Amino acid sequence: MADKKYQVFISSTYMDLIEERRAIIENILVADCIPAGMEAFVATDDEQFEVIKKVIDLCDYYVLVIGKRYGTVNLDTKLSYTEMEYDYAIEKQIPVLVFAIDEKVTLSSDKEEQETTNIEKLKCFREKAMKSRMASVWKDSSELALYVSHSINSAKANTPRLGWQRATDYDEASLRRKIMDMQLNKLVLEKELATAKEQIQMYLEQNDVAFEDVTVNARYNYFRDTGGRIHVDKEVSLEMIFTIVATQMMDVMIPETSISNILLEKLTGTSYDHYFSDTQFVKTILNQFRAIGLINPSWRKEKSLLLWGLTKKGQKIRDDRILIRNSEEE
Fold first, then answer.
1. Contact, 264 vs 271, CB < 8 A?
2. Per-residue pLDDT reduced to its tens digit, 184-210
3. What is the mean pLDDT of residues 113-117?
4. Number of domains the chain is built from
5. I want to staple 329 with a disulfide (CB 3.0 to 4.6 A). Which of 185, 203, 262, 325 is the partner?
6. What is the spatial distance between Cα 233 and Cα 216, in angstroms, rounded to a whole number?
7. Is residue 163 a part of any domain in this protein?
8. Which pTM does this prediction carry?
9. 110 and 232 assigned to the same domain
10. CA angle, corner 204, sides to 327 and 236, nearest 5?
């Protein structure tokens, strides 16, 4: 299988570093890499910068060359497009190789920044970029090219990247085997998922709740029209209570006070002026149903309200009890 080729993005100001960029490109080619210099497409507006970001996304390494000019400044960010490219490469976690000119080197005025504001921005940008562990200082184009060649080879050895490779270099038989293995794994996962669903269904069916014969004393009170309080003891099966409560929980959750009123209305015909003698009666029953997996509570913080709703198991048992069956099924 052929070796990978790595794509290297070259970022710098342009007109003042034409000779240096040419030397870098030649050495990147010698290092058997693909230079992405954007020589004829230097970013000068946001639309062009969006295109350049897409090119950076495709690169394995990013080479930043800092001279003595800051470059064209974006009106929105107040940063040069070169610094914006650098920040984007850092954001995308692309290995960055930094090469800054020796500040003692004297250049012609057209290659040095003249605006005071940009001079300060260049200084800050240089300090930020030189914090990279892969940073070097160069004096001329030949020295720069040598440093770039060495750094690229070092990065390839120590920080390998995805790289590029001809499609024809791949072994078709190996690819077919990988595809077949993936298809086989997919079938295995689908089978395991189907088995898991069957087991869940079996659990729901085999873990029904037999509470038809379990009764509780639903003692409640009410006041006579003529005065005086009446106590009533009524034996009620848990099955009946669950059916009453669960029928009200059709895809909704309801508060405990509503459940209490529903039960009183079903037991007495009205919830007006009726109340359970034991203030904890409804709460106790609800927690019984919760303990056997039929209902679950949900606290609504914004309303400071505790709501109750059916679990999957509770829904199944409710449906079994309210389902109208024909005589043959019975």
1. yes
2. 888 888 888 888 777 666 655 555 566
3. 93
4. 2
5. 325
6. 10
7. yes
8. 0.51
9. no
10. 65
